[in-house]
Each structure stands twice: as structure tokens, then as C-alpha cells.
Amino acid sequence: MIKKARELKVEASILINRYRFIFYPLYFLAIALFIYFVVYKILLVNVLNIEFNYKLNYAIFFTNYIEATRQSYVDLYVLGVITTIKISIISLVVAMSLGTVLAIFRLSNVKVLDIFAKSYIEFIRNTPLLIQIFFWYFGTDPLLPKVFTTWLKAQSNVEFAYGVIALSIYTSAFIAEEIRAGIQSIPKEQMEASRAQGFSFLQAMRLVILPQAIRIVIPPLISQSLNLTKYSSLVMSIGVVELMASSRFLFGGTARIFEALSVTTIIYLSLSLAISFALNQYNKYFLSYTRY
Predict the structure, then answer these.
(1) pTM higher than 0.85, yes or no?
(2) Is residue 292 one of the residues assigned to a domain?
(3) What are 218-259's pLDDT values in tens digits?
(4) Alpha carbon separation from 184 to 7, 190, 193 (Å, rounded)
């Protein structure tokens, strides 16, 4: 009986860990409900006769923030979540591509490429992201080619485009170091054997080294993906209507700060857990053929 109970406990633990992007929000919601109904309503209000004047009102999410279009704050939050997901995915793909190139430059025998990549990484990693966002949005017109800036400003959402550029460049510097560490963890004899088989340096990297290195760096890449999703809230500063901007519109229009920020926090938590789950599943099912 005890053995069976232990086996059930282990199975339950594995199940919760596998689907934690579902269970964790429910767990935190249960804690919040316990605090509200047991600690506050029963203990403080009924027993100790202590009551706060602030009344929670989550019904404000269903009020209209634009009367002419009959759009509610729920619609605004949905738009914000979609924008956050889009800017995070696009930035991550670009950052992964750019970070891989920078990692290869760092390991290249060409000294100029190594110095360029190292300078780029050190500069980007040691300057605040918010300054970089402002720099790309306000200060790059005189520096970039006119053709590029004209094309960029012709886009329907130029703020979104500048946000993707800033987030991609910032994150690529961190990803480059993670991938470089992963490449260096692969035995150098594999590169030598690949070159002996007639592969060029780039072919050996693409077909032999990088597939193994990516598998190794999946855990730190998950961390970088989560950071990127959270850092996407900073593009609110240049006018991108993402999740945090939606929250600001809500508490700016209704003065309901707690309701706005609590829902925003739960959504960010759910997004982070979903990203972690997706990358872990990718690591488990699509990269499982790699052997060391």
C-alpha cells in the first residue's frame, strides 16, 4: 500500500512538472482565493472585524474604453497579448539567427570577425535595454541608409518594427555567448573528423557541431526566451500596444491599479510557463536523436 502510494506520488509529480504551464497558474489562483476568502473574509473581516475600504471590481474589464467602437478592455488585453506573443516570437527567431552567426564569428580564425563579434557582444550586454530601444527609435535616422529608414517608416506599425530590432539585437548578444559555450563543449575531434571527411568549416558547423550544441544550450535558451518575453514590456515606451501598455490604459482610465496589474502578472506568468513547456517539449521530442 505504501509502495503504491509512493508510485502515485511520483507519477503525479511527473504529470505536474510536465504540464506545469497549466497547473502553476491554477496553483497560484488557488492560493489567491484562499487568501481572499479564508484569511481576509473569514479571519480579518468576521473574526477580527478588520476590513479594507478597497473593493475589488474585475467587472471593469468588460466596460468599454472606446465608446464609439464598443471595444472593451478585454479586447484591448487580447490585442496586447497577441502583440506580446508576436514581438517575442519574431525577436527570438531573429536573435537566434544573429546569435548563431556571432557565435561562429567568435570561434573563427579570422581575427577581424572575432574582434567585431566580441566588441558587439560586450557593448550590447553592458548597456541598458531601454536606452537601446530609445536609440533605435529616436536616434538612428542619421545613421541608417535612407532606403532602409524610408522602407521602415512605410510599415503600418513602425514602432513594432523598431521594437523587434532592439529586442533582437539585445537578446542576440546573450544567445551568442550561450551558443559559443555549447559549441566549445563539443569535443574538437568532431570538427577535425568532419574536416577530414571533406566538409568545409561552415558545413561541419551546420551538419555536425551546431545540432549537438543547440541541444546542450536549450536550458539557457529557455531562460533567454523568458527574459525576452518579459523585456518586451519595455517597448511600451515607444508606443507599442502590448500587454503592459494595455494594463496602463486600464488603470489610467479606471484607476483600478490592483485589478490591472494582477491580471497582467498572471498572463505574463502563464506565457512564461507555456514558453518553458514548449521548448522543453521541443528538446525532448525533436532533439532526442542527438547522442554524445
Answers:
(1) no
(2) no
(3) 878 888 888 999 999 999 999 888 999 988 888 888 888 888
(4) 40, 11, 16
